[in-house]
Amino acid sequence: MKTFRIMLKSELKLSLRGIDMIIFAICMPIVVIIIIGIIYGDTPAFDGAEYTYLEPSFSAVATIAICAGGVMGLPLVISDYRHKKILKRFKVTPSSPLMILAVQVVIYALYSITSLVFVYTVARLFFGYQLNGSWFQFLGGYLLVILSMFSIGVLVGGLAPNIKIASVITSVLYFPMLIFSGATLPYEAMPTALQKVANILPLTQGIKLLKAASLGLPIESVIFPIMVMILFAIICISVSIRFFKWE
Amino acid sequence: METTINVKQLSKTYDGILAVDNVNISVARGTVFGLLGANGAGKSTIIECILGTKRQDSGEVSILGMNPQRERKKLFEKVGVQFQEANYQENIRVGELCEVTESLYKTTIDYKVLLKQFGLSEKSKSLVNELSSGQRQRLFIILALIPNPEIVFLDELTTGLDSKARRDVWNFLSYLKKQGLTILLTSHFMDEIEALCDEICILKQGKTVFYGNVNEAILASPFEKLEDAYLWYTEEFENENI
């Protein structure tokens, strides 16, 4: 436990020194929620909707940090540490490379939660946002989204043969997911054809789940997204456990 | 004398090429053992097979009577390792790297004492990236010593160090040896081998071409200096292959 604490402290410092997660996971969601708030503020989500445009968007924006950490930060750091043989060094200590991976997962989860707190505070203070649904369900869904997004990250980081390929894969995953899953561009505003394509992305399903929880829609409507998220997590985790490369 | 590192008939191939061919090594407690050979002769592969970071094709390895793969956690409380290539996080500071390393072990030597001993006290707040190559090399020796090990593995011990720093490292290792530390090292410097090693093994393309102490190595060759003898051992076998 002492090892974990000291390593978490030091890896967190290193991550903050890297600055990119502060930009992509902390600053960017705040900027996006402010823009959405200013442009659409009180307008209804669609004609005759009972909730404003901002309300479903809150859930979407809250996942930007998960997406940045899970499919960009996490795979890059894993592949970097393997490339630099840091994981190998842990193999010749009483600790294990798993420890440093666990530390990284915790760090990116912390970024996500911090981002959620900031986005909520901004939406609440400046645009009068209120979460009408259940916080309990929302946070449960949030953890599920973290689990499935991070499992993709561990998979990519564990299997990519080098950091160059890892960064190509993360870009291919990150940018489409960020734009088309509804995290930045509202899903509701997309043409139906695009929505169908977007539905393939696991994050789209995650955002649907969070929207339903935050708006207080019935849980039955999101059984499918829940199943998709869980399935993604199971597949990615089992494949990474089976094929993870330490070197 | 108690054997601390025991390697029997170790062989390892990479893509059909024999990198290590039937090598036997036995290192007694409190002695320094040197692995010699040109780049690519198999030194690092042997070290990695001993440490369990690479799996041998055949042969047996034990350290302190333990299997390095099965009893990893217990074994590496007592074993310090310095790999040839530096492996540390970007943007990490000297003190942080030491602190994290210290946290991995149950019993440790205070790293601040080691930093002082190796003349790096003032560098504690510096980025590891910004150290000179000699300073970094000393830092990695410190990391290997932090667990207060019974055995240390030092791959290319003093590469990049200036003469004074090398002497300092030798003196410190000699002191630790007197305290009972067992050392397995690789080096390209014959003066270093002569100053430190009780026994050596000279490798040529994965095969042992000499095994014994430094005097025997010189006596069995037509030369009077270890460097000449070493070149004779490695080149003679090269000529045979042609």
TrEMBL record, chain A:
A GO MF term: ABC-type transporter activity
Annotated ABC transmembrane type-2 domain residues: 20-247
Subcellular localization: Cell membrane; Membrane
Transmembrane segments: 21-40, 60-78, 98-123, 135-156, 168-187, 222-244
Keyword Cell membrane included in the entry's annotation: yes
Cellular component, GO annotation: ATP-binding cassette (ABC) transporter complex
Keywords noted in UniProt: Cell membrane, Membrane, Transmembrane, Transmembrane helix, Transport
Membrane topology type: Multi-pass membrane protein
InterPro entries reported in the protein's UniProt record: ABC-2_transporter (IPR052902), ABC2_TM (IPR013525), ABC2_TM_bact-type (IPR047817), ABC_2_transport (IPR000412)
Superkingdom of origin: Bacteria
Main subcellular localisation: membrane
Any one Pfam family match given in the protein's UniProt record, by short name: ABC2_membrane
PANTHER family from the UniProt entry: DOXORUBICIN RESISTANCE ABC TRANSPORTER PERMEASE PROTEIN DRRC-RELATED, TRANSPORT PERMEASE PROTEIN
Protein family according to the UniProt entry: Belongs to the ABC-2 integral membrane protein family.
Protein name: Transport permease protein
Source organism (scientific name): Alkalibaculum sporogenes
From TrEMBL, chain B:
Domain of life: Bacteria
Keyword Nucleotide-binding: yes
Residue ranges of the TM segments: none
PANTHER family associated with the record: ABC TRANSPORTER ATP-BINDING PROTEIN, ABC TRANSPORTER ATP-BINDING PROTEIN NATA
Keywords assigned: ATP-binding, Nucleotide-binding, Transport
Domain ABC transporter span(s) in chain numbering: 5-230
Homology family: Belongs to the ABC transporter superfamily.
Protein's recorded name: ATP-binding cassette domain-containing protein
CDD domains on file: ABC_DR_subfamily_A (cd03230)
Keyword Nucleotide-binding: yes
GO molecular function, one term: ATP binding
InterPro entries for the chain: AAA+_ATPase (IPR003593), ABC_transporter-like_ATP-bd (IPR003439), ABC_transporter-like_CS (IPR017871), ABC_transporter_ATP-binding (IPR050763), P-loop_NTPase (IPR027417)
Organism of derivation: Alkalibaculum sporogenes
